[in-house]
Design a protein that fits this description.
By secondary structure, the chain is mainly alpha-helical. It has two domains: 16-158 and 283-308, Four Helix Bundle (Hemerythrin (Met), subunit A) (Up-down Bundle), CATH 1.20.120; 165-280, no CATH class. The chain is 71% helix and 0% strand. It has helices at 16-40, 42-45, 58-61, 68-82, 84-88, 92-95, 100-121, 128-153, 165-181, 187-190, 199-203, 207-232, 235-240, 251-271, 273-308. It starts with 15 loop residues before the first helix and ends with a helix.
Length: 311
């Protein structure tokens, strides 16, 4: 039995594998850099501020040091790179380059890496203007992760146009028929994947509670999927799949599990669609001012440092 439908907001843009490879390479490079500097400077960063100038690593790791200053430059340009994503929406030529989803992935990755690089640049001294700028940037990074999650909750088709609720429900019906045709699991066994609040409960939830509920449902789904696999496997299979968290060698089992997972994901997104859109609108109100505020503060910091050499 083969599934013939795509999951909600599924896409298979050209170059997806290349994009994932580049993202993984950037994450590996950034993680290696950050962990290496942090490990090397651990004994320096844990010193009191008054004792740091006496450390042999001070000339390297202070904000204006041979390591600290390049980190600051890298962090500043990482943050500038964040503005390419909103610029892409207004510049026609740039808008034609690559996939919007890929650009958003890079946008979130830059927003996550930049605060960590800046923290090392400042040697974890967050006083005055630098401190305000840093915490604003942390808010930008965290809100960016939330925004990326919300973006995936709003249904879109392969061309990134909005997918109608009618089409989504048709897709859900196809998945339901595929589940009814399988014989591996009973409805009771599959029901754990479909334990959601009622539509009335969702509509009366405060926005942040609705967001937390969405994240909670998505977070526990891998555990429910693993439990399904364990029901269909013996002890050896459970061991080799690490308790059902890894795919099994049984193609029929994996096909049914994937259909059930996709249907559960789709049902949740339909249920929370209007709330996700409301949170996404609120997110825009919060995210943009933080971004622009940090841009102003970072620019002021750079100008002051260049004029007065305060590093």
């Amino acid at each position: 039995m083969q599934a013939t439908v795509r999951p909600f907001f599924a896409s298979a843009p050209n170059g997806r594998g290349t994009h994932q490879f580049r993202m993984a390479a950037f994450i590996l490079l950034a993680t290696t850099l950050l962990v290496s500097v942090a490990a090397y400077g651990l004994d320096y960063y844990t010193l009191d501020k008054i004792d740091r100038p006496h450390s042999p690593k001070h000339k390297l790791l202070k904000p204006g040091g041979r390591i600290g200053l390049p980190l600051g430059i890298v962090g500043f340009f990482l943050f500038l790179g964040l503005f390419l994503y909103p610029l892409r929406k207004r510049w026609a030529w740039l808008g034609k380059q690559g996939s919007s989803r890929h650009w958003l992935d890079v946008h979130v990755l830059l927003g996550s890496a930049a605060p960590l690089v800046i923290a090392l640049h400042s040697s974890f001294k967050f006083n005055g203007l630098v401190g305000v700028a840093f915490w604003i940037m942390m808010a930008v990074g965290l809100s960016g992760i939330v925004g990326r999650y919300l973006y995936t909750q709003i249904p879109r088709n392969l061309t990134a146009a909005e997918l109608s609720l009618h089409e989504a429900r048709e897709m859900q019906e196809q998945l339901a028929k595929a589940l009814e045709a399988q014989r591996l699991f009973s409805k009771a066994e599959l029901s754990m994947l479909f334990r959601f609040p009622t539509p009335e409960q969702v509509q009366h939830m405060p926005l942040f509670l609705a967001l937390g509920c969405m994240v909670g449902i998505d977070s526990v789904r891998p555990f429910h999927v693993a439990a399904l696999r364990r029901r269909a496997m013996d002890a050896r299979g459970t061991l080799t799949t690490l308790g059902g968290f890894l795919p099994a060698g049984n193609a029929e089992l994996e096909n049914v599990v994937e259909i059930a997972r996709r249907k559960a994901s789709l049902a949740k997104r339909i249920l929370f669609l209007s709330r996700a859109q409301q949170v996404f609108q609120l997110w825009h109100v919060v995210h943009r001012p933080f971004s622009y505020s940090f841009a102003v503060l970072a620019t002021v910091h750079v100008i002051v440092v260049m004029l007065f050499g305060l590093l």
